């Protein structure tokens, strides 16, 4: 089995809270066919058994397209299924704890909100990429802290790890973030809520 990509770049798809695993896999396969560069399994309403079933179903799909599967929040789930990495925020596992459990080649992403200093610390502590946001109002995460688009250029001038932008990103505003130099855009609703998911993924991917 060929290795998936090791760097985060281009379109970074974030799964919506969908209970029907078959439907979720169908939608994810459309994003993969459309050129997504990375997939994150994020479900804030599923219980542990459903998270295990759904993430286990997504892994072979991602492997077939050589796209890394990142698990949001749950370190033990990422270890259990052999995911390609983990994404954590301020209330999740710390980097030292993650480094103790995940194999060295696994990807570790860190939410940095609007805080450049947090990203500098995360890079020093061994993060594979950092994410800033929310750059625009997000129905998926309405209470997200807001970040100014100028933060992307500032972050790119001081960080060496890939910079991911997130929050309310759609096909009307994504170019403004890519123009600032972000390495990837993390999208949920504007991708999975599209009438033609594969075409939407192609449109986002063509921005890079
Ligand atoms: C790429 C990326 N960036 C941010 C998040 C946010 O994660 P979430 O668990 O919703 O919130 P925090 O724990 O970061 O506060 C993400 N999932 N992916
Ligand atoms: C999961 C998440 N984290 C955010 C942050 O700012 O840390 S915003 C967000 C929601 C992303 O979904 P959508 O593309 O539908 O807005
Ligand atoms: Mg989290």
Automatic annotation (TrEMBL):
Pfam families: TMP-TENI (PF02581). It catalyses: 4-methyl-5-(2-phosphooxyethyl)-thiazole + 4-amino-2-methyl-5-(diphosphooxymethyl)pyrimidine + H(+) = thiamine phosphate + diphosphate; 2-(2-carboxy-4-methylthiazol-5-yl)ethyl phosphate + 4-amino-2-methyl-5-(diphosphooxymethyl)pyrimidine + 2 H(+) = thiamine phosphate + CO2 + diphosphate; 2-[(2R,5Z)-2-carboxy-4-methylthiazol-5(2H)-ylidene]ethyl phosphate + 4-amino-2-methyl-5-(diphosphooxymethyl)pyrimidine + 2 H(+) = thiamine phosphate + CO2 + diphosphate. One of its GO terms (biological process) is thiamine biosynthetic process. Binds 1 Mg(2+) ion per subunit. SUPFAM superfamilies: Thiamin phosphate synthase (SSF51391). 2-[(2R,5Z)-2-carboxy-4-methylthiazol-5(2H)-ylidene]ethyl phosphate binds at residues 138-140, 168. One of its GO terms (cellular component) is cytoplasm. 4-amino-2-methyl-5-(diphosphooxymethyl)pyrimidine binds at residues 40-44, 72, 111, 141. Coiled coil: none annotated. Its cofactor is Mg(2+). The keyword Magnesium applies. Mg(2+) binds at residues 73, 92. Gene3D superfamilies: Aldolase class I. NCBIfam families: thiE. This is Thiamine-phosphate synthase.
């Amino acid at each position: 089995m060929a290795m998936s990509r090791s760097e985060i770049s281009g379109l970074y798809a974030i799964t919506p809270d969908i209970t029907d695993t078959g439907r979720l896999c169908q939608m994810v396969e459309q994003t993969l066919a459309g050129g997504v560069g990375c997939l994150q399994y994020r479900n804030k309403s599923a219980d542990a058994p459903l998270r295990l079933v759904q993430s286990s179903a997504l892994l072979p799909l991602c492997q077939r397209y050589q796209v890394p599967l990142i698990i949001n929040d749950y370190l033990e789930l990422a270890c259990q299924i052999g995911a390609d990495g983990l994404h954590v925020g301020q209330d999740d596992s710390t980097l030292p704890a993650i480094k103790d459990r995940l194999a060295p080649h696994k990807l570790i992403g860190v939410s940095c909100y609007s805080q450049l200093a947090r990203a500098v610390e995360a890079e020093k502590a061994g993060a594979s990429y950092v994410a800033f946001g929310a750059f625009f109002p997000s129905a998926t995460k309405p209470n997200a802290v807001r970040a100014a688009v100028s933060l992307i250029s500032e972050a790119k001038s001081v960080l060496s790890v890939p910079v991911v932008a997130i929050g309310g990103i759609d096909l009307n505003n994504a170019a403004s973030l890519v123009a600032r130099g972000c390495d990837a855009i993390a999208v949920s609703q504007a991708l999975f809520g599209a009438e033609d998911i594969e075409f939407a993924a192609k449109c986002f991917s063509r921005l890079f």
